[in-house]
Amino acid sequence: MTKNIMIVGVGGQGSLLASKLLGHLLLTEGYDVKVSEVHGMSQRGGSVVTYVRFGEKVFSPIIDKGEADYIVSFEKLEAARYVEYLREGGRIVVNTQEIDPMPVITGAATYPEDLIAKMKGLGIQVDAMDCLALANEAGSSKAVNIVLMGRLSKYFDIPEEKWQQAIKDCVPPKFLELNLKAFELGRNS
Q1: What are the residues facing 36 on neighbouring strands?
Q2: CA–CA dist 141, 179 (Å, integer)
Q3: Which pLDDT tens digits describe the chain residue by residue (189 residues)?
Q4: Which top CATH class is 3-188?
Q5: What are the residue ranges spanned by the domains of the chain?
């Protein structure tokens, strides 16, 4: 049975490291893994989507609407934007941070209110937390991606030590301690 994870965010938030880390971890667990990066205007703060699919044998890297077991979102509006990809009974792990898209910045639109409540109102399992505050507590606002991976790890039957080893394998040594702390804060908050 193939499992599907979508990582959605805004360019520059570290979603590619998150997907690399997840892919590495799942490969070491013996799964067939396909990771597909769908870049938006990432350099301009646009939407960035990464698909991670794993199982006994995975044929396609693409996740269609209604197929995602998990959506990991770096920002509330991105979670809402991709909610139709979530399968029934799936879960959204979301950072409660708000990053204004261009139409909001230019004044052409306003940021939607109560997005978490609206998603929960649709019967969706939403695990929302302030990952930016936890990343700052770990030592860097750039560690939001690893805080989110820590939170996601709670939903997998993979020992915490294996996640930590994947971080050691994927993160430069000078940032290792910070990222391990970010992971721990995300997992245990």
Answers
A1: 51
A2: 11
A3: 999 999 998 877 788 899 999 999 999 999 999 999 776 655 556 788 999 999 999 999 999 999 999 999 999 999 999 999 999 999 999 999 988 888 888 999 999 999 999 999 999 999 999 999 999 999 999 999 999 999 999 999 999 999 999 999 999 999 999 999 999 999 999
A4: alpha beta
A5: 3-188
